[in-house]
Design a protein that fits this description.
By secondary structure, this protein is mainly beta. It has no helices and eleven strands. A hairpin with a 6-residue loop joins strand 5 and strand 6.
């Protein structure tokens, strides 16, 4: 029923910026919390950022804090991740994910119900 589709990945140099977007369909987007995760080569999938269904609360990993900004547009059923000051260690496949509100923003991948297929971000030295 719910489908998520990421876009905006690509190749960028160290210090550059990239904006990822995720389009949701088939569900009541405005009632779901949204998150971004990433998985580097040979690494486990890790949390990046999350935003509440209202957009009033956000949560960031230590790595993302101060460099990345998550936002959402419920009228367009989209969530975005603006990434600035990119580093080679940010290289990963980035995934959009969705879960029903649980009283707090979730940083555990196991808490999310739906996932997109991912978009590749590569940061060159």
């Amino acid at each position: 029923q719910v489908q998520l589709a990421e876009s905006g990945g690509g190749l960028v140099q160290t210090g550059g910026s990239l904006r990822l977007s995720c389009a949701s369909s088939g569900g009541n987007f405005g009632r779901w919390a949204m998150g971004w995760f990433r998985q580097g080569p040979g690494k486990e999938r890790v949390f990046v950022a999350a935003i509440s269904w209202s957009g009033r609360e956000t949560l960031y990993s230590d790595s993302a804090k101060g460099r990345f900004t998550i936002s959402r547009n419920n009228a367009e059923n989209t969530v975005s991740l603006q990434m600035n000051s990119l580093k080679p260690e940010d290289t990963a496949v980035y995934y959009c994910a969705q879960h029903l509100p649980t009283g707090r923003l979730e940083a555990s991948s196991g808490a999310y119900d739906y996932w997109g297929q991912g978009t590749q971000v590569t940061v060159s030295s």
